[in-house]
Specification:
This protein has about 230 residues and is an alpha/beta fold. It is built from nine helices and twelve strands.
Length: about 230
């Protein structure tokens, strides 16, 4: 299995995953043109994509899904809450493939297991993706690490995990109080220390790679995430 984070943060989110002859996107939070440009940076073409899987309906996760689905004639997978809430942001799709949170899904050489996360969206999910050899988990946009999240992420060889903000930077930064409260809430985003605590519980000899994702450009710094 190979993967690449094409972007992660409030400006857009997109994760590319491939194994064997199957390639997918987890979220499509940039324009179709921008996703195409970013795929080219890793020597990949959008025509290689078999499907797009959505975690939730916020614009920074779905804005490019519609145009790519139509242009490439590929399906978009989402649960009912995401499909209903995100429809207006994406426009017409080539095809919907609806699933229930917690479902296991199969496409080509990849198997995906969706799991519920805690965020201020209709029915947000993360994914564990497996090709029978390697397991990759993507878990961003969650306000706290539930027992279910800890269970689903255990035993993976690679993790894409949210390290969103430093509490002091958030408190002393430019965001209004109501937005700060939303970010800190249990339906907001993980602080560095929360993510680090979660990660410590997931360490095992087979864990090869961890990507710190969804770092706030305003309320965080890579050095702070690494130091946590």
């Amino acid at each position: 299995m190979r993967f690449a984070v094409l972007g992660s943060g409030s400006k857009g989110n997109c994760l590319y995953v491939e194994s064997g002859g199957t390639a997918i996107l987890i979220d499509a939070g940039f324009t179709g043109k921008e996703i195409t440009r970013r795929l080219a940076l890793i020597d990949r073409r959008p025509e290689q994509l078999a499907a797009i899987f959505l975690t939730h309906e916020h614009s920074d996760h779905v804005v490019g899904a519609g145009v790519l689905s139509r242009r490439l004639a590929i399906p978009v997978y989402a649960n009912g809450g995401t499909a209903l809430s995100g429809e207006a942001k994406m426009g017409r799709l080539h095809a919907w493939r609806e699933f229930a949170s917690g479902d296991r899904l199969e496409i080509g050489d990849l198997n995906l297991h969706s799991f519920t996360i805690s965020h201020d969206a209709s029915d947000p999910v993360g994914f564990v993706i497996s090709d029978g050899v390697c397991r990759l988990a993507s878990c961003t946009d969650t306000g706290y690490a539930t027992n279910l999240i800890c269970t689903r992420l255990a035993g993976c060889q690679a993790l894409v995990l949210e390290f969103n903000h430093d509490p002091d930077m958030l408190k002393n930064g430019p965001y209004p109080l109501d937005l700060q409260q939303r970010i800190r809430s249990r339906r907001g985003h993980l602080a560095n220390a929360q993510a680090a605590e979660l990660l410590r519980g997931l360490l095992h000899d087979g864990l090869r790679q961890v990507v710190s994702a969804h770092l706030s450009e305003t309320n965080n710094a890579p050095s702070l995430a690494l130091a946590a």
